[in-house]
Amino acid sequence: MKGGEVIINDLIEKEKKRQNDTIQLIPSENHTTPAVMEAVGSCLMNKYSEGYPGRRYYEGNEIIDEIERLAIDNAKKLFGVPHANVQPYSGSPANAAILMALLEAGDTIMGLKLSGGGHLTHGHPQVTFSGKFFKSVQFGLDEKNARIDIKKVAELASQHRPKLMIIGNTAYPFELYFDQFAKIADEIGAWLVADISHVAGLVVAGEHPDPVPHAHIVMTTTHKTLRGPRGAMILVTEKGLQRDPDLGGKIDRAVFPGLQGGPHNNTTAGIAVALEEALQPPFKTYAKQIRLNAKVLAAALQEKGLQIVGGGTQTHLMIIDLRNWGGGTQLAAAMAAAGLFANKNTVPDEPHSPFYPSGVRIGTPAVTTRGMQEKEMEQIAAWIAEIESLTKKFSLPSDKLERRQLVKEVKQWAAQQARLKEIREEVGELCRQFPVA
Ligand code: DSN
Known about the structure:
It is a single chain. The protein is built from 17 helices and 15 strands. Helix 7 (about 180-190) links the parallel strand 7 and strand 8. It is about 45% helix and about 15% strand. Helix 2 (about 35-40) packs antiparallel against helix 11 (about 265-280) and helix 12 (about 280-305) runs parallel beside helix 15 (about 375-390). D-serine binds near residues 28, 91, 119 and 170.
């Protein structure tokens, strides 16, 4: 298989080896099953299918219709909703479609700040479509415990009267109480959209509060805790249809022709497979273990002296708080050199910058897929704590150029550091005991 100068097949094998031989702690990543990968890598990608099952603009879609209907039926069954659109290419386009379906440019929306663990598409100001084309009201976290202060949310909502509230998390490690958000949204007549991209796998397993009884629309990506291919779904709830019987139609028209062209049928098939897997009883055990692993990992890190934002986690993720030495970038780089992949992340009220933030975000969906449990979480925590103590000497300078230089230095140092090399070996040994399927 050739792709220009490089042989893509070799690169795929190299990436497969990286994923197998190292530990993936980025909480939005996972290892899909071979069945999902087979569907995504199939001839289904060759077909154009603008429209929806039974209503296509191209001939030859009878089989694609069956596939999309299966994905829709699985989504409806898994989440207990009356309407599902499985065509969004990913989470950001799905959120754009929802805003397009329900709002006019200039309307007011409300969401959790990015620095509090929200998402760019939840109204992040200036640089995103959601902050540029809509008036955006953002709430943060309570300073003391890093939790959403629902009273403040209620105050802001009654002051600004958003037309739509979009509630979800990418780096907020605690449960989202959708009943409380619904009370606020209902009082001001706002649409409530739950973005459960991160926690969907936990929701369907009963390991996180369920937004379906409370929100009008639920959006989720399919590749995080849900363990499917990269894609997204927009689900319309009974409550949504009660408010507007045409809500499903509005969402469908916003996805296509509003924003997208032909659906990625291979991804739709991968979603159908992943949802089928999530409907089986072992998925519940998997989701329970994700949370248990996260709890054990957070507690073990704390025992070893590391600070965790908000003092722990109720979900699959946590943020290591390194604001005392500004070490998010440095620790993530040193961990990567040792075969532990996480991502630098802001902490609430970030004192530095999003590019040189004070936190590292870690999560357990991928390691749990490999079969790792509490004992392995203790081991991972011990490695991270040791790497942090080795890396701490690289505190963050305030000068921009010096910062850039420091990152280079850390990477050079990490590539040579003897103990990091040893940890890399130990990580490899653990990974061999838990191969990726
Ligand atoms: N990029 C995703 C994440 O890592 O959480 C959110 O879109």
